[in-house]
Design goal:
Helices cover about 35% and strands about 25% of the residues. The strands form 2 sheets. Strands 6-5-4-3-8-7 form a 6-stranded mixed β-sheet. The chain has a two-stranded antiparallel sheet with strand order 1-2. It is α+β, with helices and mostly antiparallel strands. The chain has 3 domains: about 35 residues, no CATH class; about 80 residues, Roll (SH3 type barrels); about 40 residues.
Amino acid sequence: MSRKFMKLAGVLVLAAMPVTGPALAQAVATAGMSVPFVTEQPANEWLARVFLGQAVHNTAGEVIGDIRDLVFDRSGRISTAVIGVGGYLGMGEKWVGVAFESLTYKTGDKGQRMISVALTKEALVKAPAFVATEKTMMDTAKDKASQLGHETADKAVELKDKAVQKYEDMRKPEPAKQ
């Protein structure tokens, strides 16, 4: 592609972007294209790291789970929120996917952000589990650690059995010599 075409494409991308407020900060030439840089988080938007782990309430205000993950479609829009429900300290927790649009957001009495969904905890527990089809590096590491843990436990049992057998062999009286 020509450099002129690349610049034109960059200008068209910038013109099509819905950027307002602090997000309209500045455009910088990078590799022949103009790319907008956001210099400050807009007041009405959340960082993913703050959103993840956020409690989810039902319409009565009771905590029924928490945001465990987000699923993005190919256009970059969040399509699904994965809610963790049940379990204790992450053990036995079930993940349930709900349409992102089904969540509502408001500010609590003390100014905190609150996420709610028109579901009961029982409905989430009965809902089908969400299954992720791709793994993060952390998922892969957990799987490997689990596999190594099982292999180590199996080896420990094998070594214990060998040690017990060796001990029993040593305790047997030697046959009398004739």
